[in-house]
Design goal:
The structure is a homodimer of 215-residue chains. The first copy, chain A, is of the alpha+beta class. Chain A is 34% helix and 26% strand. In chain A, helix 1 packs across helix 4 and helix 3 packs antiparallel against helix 5. Chain A is globular. At the A-B interface, helix 1, strand 1, strand 4 and strand 5 of A face helix 1, strand 1, strand 4 and strand 5 of B.
Chain lengths: 215, 215
């Protein structure tokens, strides 16, 4: 119980209220994705993943700048595209870090709301490495009033425990550990729960693979 | 004027209120730093920077985990240590990304408040590359009431313009461009201003050097 309370306190201490809905749809989900392969081949690795993705008809809006790519659309489709981007840029001999900021209900999202009309599509890209171990740190920011948040955030952490992702408190965040498929299934479940119970939320995650620090 | 308003709106749309001060000092500044050199030598580059830093008597608390290092102490000292870590891990032939989360006034900071008693110390490490071009995207989160924030955040953006860092709006953030010395001088000035006018704040920044996308 003490463990759960500690975890909850840490998560709740990060709660924020975003001044949202100035304009735009609150139903569109956005994810900013940066991929950092710590390897001389980083450009080829990233470009090859992007080219494979672009051969598909993606059910999401996307835009790339110097720092990252933003994907926006239905939550299920955005998570699936991002998971595929991670799988396509995975190399079993390369330490790679993926930075994700998933947000829903924020302004500036007035473009391309028509992507919400897309059906749920799961990409099937044969050249991707489907499953591998990941370590993750994440913070979940809920924008409801504080009373509701305690229960909702507890539930979201409990979902990670039930998925077997072994949540542990870090400085300013919580760590998870498991397979990439389990992690994204958890993100999907957690965001589905959040969609039902929390009006606005942001999930920030750092996913690390093949770190030499684990040896 | 339209440009400034757009910029301000984007920044304000990211405003959050953190549920803070559960415990701990509000005067301690923390910075979570991750360094991502996109190169086979990434481990040597990071370890060599850490070793050079550790030869100094650092005026800050620090802790490293699988994902990053947290530095905490007086704002001036934390910024100086982080800038030196960036400079020490810079290689003019390596595309490197630095992720920083600078926060002040948040809970969980009960340890090592005595570092606030340290004098302001500027490190002088001869082997570091002192100055180089950086591109940066950042978001500034202010936790005052909304009316004050508008003016304060406008002023913080205007400070970047006056420093010559050419702030431009991005999706969910603002970009800056200049030298690392100018960028950290701006961070110092912006946080000093924030300290006087805003009780709680977080600055999230991604710093990119030698990106092949610039060519």
């Amino acid at each position: 119980m003490l463990y759960k309370l500690r975890l909850t306190k840490r998560l709740v201490s990060k709660m924020k209220i975003v001044s949202c809905n100035l304009d735009g749809s609150v139903d569109i989900t956005g994810c900013i994705l940066s991929i950092y392969p710590m390897d001389n081949r980083y450009a080829d690795i990233i470009l090859s993943a992007v080219n494979s993705l672009n051969k598909q008809k993606l059910p999401v809006w996307s835009k790339t700048d110097l720092f990252s790519t933003v994907y926006r659309g239905r939550q299920e489709n955005v998570l699936d595209v991002v998971k595929n981007a991670c799988q396509l840029s995975y190399r079993n001999d390369v330490h790679t870090v993926y930075e994700l900021t998933i947000s829903k209900g924020c302004p500036g999202d007035e473009d391309a709301d028509h992507f919400l009309n897309e059906g749920i599509q799961k990409l099937s890209i044969t050249e991707a490495t489907k499953n591998f171990h990941v370590d993750c740190k994440y913070s979940f920011y809920s924008f409801n009033d504080a009373e509701t948040n305690m229960d909702d955030i507890s539930e979201i952490v409990n979902m990670a425990e039930r998925c077997g992702l072994n949540p542990q408190p870090l400085h300013y965040a919580t760590s998870l550990s498991g397979s990439i498929e389990t992690l994204f299934k958890y993100f999907e479940d957690a965001l589905e729960y959040a969609h039902k119970h929390i009006q606005h939320y942001v999930l920030e995650a750092t996913i690390s693979v093949n770190s030499p620090s684990l040896k």
